[in-house]
Design brief:
With 362 residues, the protein is mainly α. It is built from 12 helices and 4 strands; from the N terminus they run H-E-H-H-H-H-H-E-H-H-E-H-H-E-H-H.
Amino acid sequence: MHTTRSMSALAVAVSLLLLLAARCHGYQYNATQGPLVTAVIVFGDSIVDPGNNNGLLTLIKANHPPYGKDFFNHEATGRYSNGLIPTDLIAQGLGVKQLLPAYLGVDHSPEDLLTGVSFASGATGFDPLTPVVVSVISLEQQLSYFDEYRGKLVDIVGEEETEKIIEGSLFVVCAGTDDVANTYFTTPFRSVEYDIPSYVDLLVSGAEAFLRKVSSKGARKIGFVGMPPVGCVPSQRTVGGGLRRECEPKRNQAAQLYNARIQDMIGGLNEEPSFTTLVVYMDIYRILDDLMERGQRYGFTETTKGCCGTGMIEVTGLCDSRFVSVCDDVSQHVFFDSYHPTEQAYRIIVNDIFDNYIQVIM
């Protein structure tokens, strides 16, 4: 057991009590309880991108209505949902801050930088080809931005304090879905070269290399988000599920294989004596599958279509209030567009993450 992972019984008890307090407050930011981590720092794709794609020459953007229709001031910030996204809710639940901002295109205050940012870019992935196809930020470039960000922390508080902030941060890594849904099953570039198991191996190798690099930059606590049931996402039902828009099994099989191999890889990393970072796998397949299969238990009446337009294919540029309408009651929908959940669904998913994984990282 690494010394960086050990905690006294008292510290564990205090952490769990604070987590319980966060849950009782419904993940509303509570500055008086004190943060459980120094900062939240995020790498990944559109699930955790609060607007880094806004300034890019790409079609993968959410900085236009109806995105953000239930956000503060109904502002479309670039978050791919009607409101908050998971990393906002995680930052709130940990008592860090109310919103986790994008790194790019934002005039940050020193406090914003000290408590964390997201480098995530919608539609990126672990396959190096994935960000190239849609002209978004690669994970390698996200690491370069982190180096730049770290330099800004040093300018604000000095090297010693910066090291403490990085070591005390929760890092979140969320990617892989776009590799499967877009690069492998939508474009011809990879499916002619790889079968599903070998492509999954490519992704897992990329994920392992990325985790090692994040660890080498000082991260000591990483939450790694697994892949959802890709074949049941509305757009994937539409393009691969036939006339009845059923869940497409090959995409789900790829996600399940990926999740199994990712967990094996993470287990191996955590057992390496020289690997000084704790990586915790966060399963979202199970909870999202339950939301879609038994949505009424959670208050949802529509689980197979998004709220935007027809709900079957509209996402990013196609989900635009100038061209399509939006449903009357977003709260009844698991998905906002054909790919991304609603804030209400995200809250349930983050509740599950806190219930099952956050206390392990703490």
